[in-house]
Amino acid sequence: METRQEVTFVMRRLFNLIRKLADSKLHTKWKFTPMQGHVIHFIHHHAGEAVYQRDLERAFEIRRSTASAILQTMERKGLLYREPVVHDARLKRLMLTQLATEHHDHVRSVFEEINKLITKDITPDELAAFLSATTKMENNLNEYLAQQGDLPENPDHGEANE
Q1: Residue 17: which CATH number?
Q2: What pLDDT does residue 107 have?
Q3: Which structural domain range is residue 121 located in?
Q4: What is the total count of domains within the chain?
């Protein structure tokens, strides 16, 4: 059987393997998804700053509906809450609960472990070339999407409601 080498196919395979590993490390013990772990890390990393839903949408390149569903699930699980902002009643600052804060170090260590695992036997030059190439790919996609204007929303792929 021939292995497909198209970039999108390879990237999808890598994403699936990383997600499978992260799921096994986070969901089994802590009952949250890798994306919820990324959100916890993002908010924790920006401690002292006001973090809003739109910041997550930009940082993770997700649609408003996806971000909203992720945050609603995390609120139900007691991982975060939304705090009204005095200067704009429409804005709600995202705040981690004590539960999420307690688990942040574990979340960070899981992602560090995965990063070490996937970069094992990769030279610094190979890693630099990979990061350079993927940055160019991301820029190409963002440029194309910007030229297209408003594209119809694609259906969510299950991440938000896990």
Answers
A1: 1.10.10.10
A2: 80
A3: 7-148
A4: 1
